[in-house]
Amino acid sequence: xxxxxxxxxxxxxxxxxxxxxxxxxxxxxxxxxxxxxxxxxxxxxxxxxxxxxxxxxxxxxxxxxxxxxxxxxxxxxxxxxxxxxxxxxxxxxxxxxxxxxxxxxxxxxxxxxxxxxxxxxxxxxxxxxxxxxxxxxxx
Length: 139
Description:
CATH class of the domain at 39-135: Alpha Beta
Number of strands: 3
Order of helices and strands: HEHEEHH
Low-confidence stretches: 19-26
CATH architecture of the domain at 39-135: 2-Layer Sandwich
Radius of gyration: 23 Å
Mean pLDDT: 74
CATH topology of the domain at 39-135: Ribosomal Protein S8, Chain: A, domain 1
Largest sheet: 3 strands, antiparallel
Number of helices: 4
Strand order of the largest sheet: 1-3-2
Shape: elongated
Helix content: 25-40%
Strand content: 5-15%
């Protein structure tokens, strides 16, 4: 099984050439990611733009960034978050004790309730809307 260097295709009519292994893959960026100096900043900006556009929807509130980010990458995230008044940036610790950067939409309590009321399940990853009767416990 495999290619022996002959023509390719179901009728063996298509000539194929071998490709040299000149493509360098950075496992942190993924195959085909352009290694421009500003590529990470451009990607973070797009993520934040999408997050801001999602305000009012039931889209996930937080974007969690890998604990393996460099200090320079963390600075890019923090700087880009500060440019947007709707976004807050914080650090949280995962179950393994790693430090994660978490970015989310700033919401007032009433905005959070409105968002949950518009959700069919009345909950998201962070909050669940309950009625006073659900909180009442008989003595």
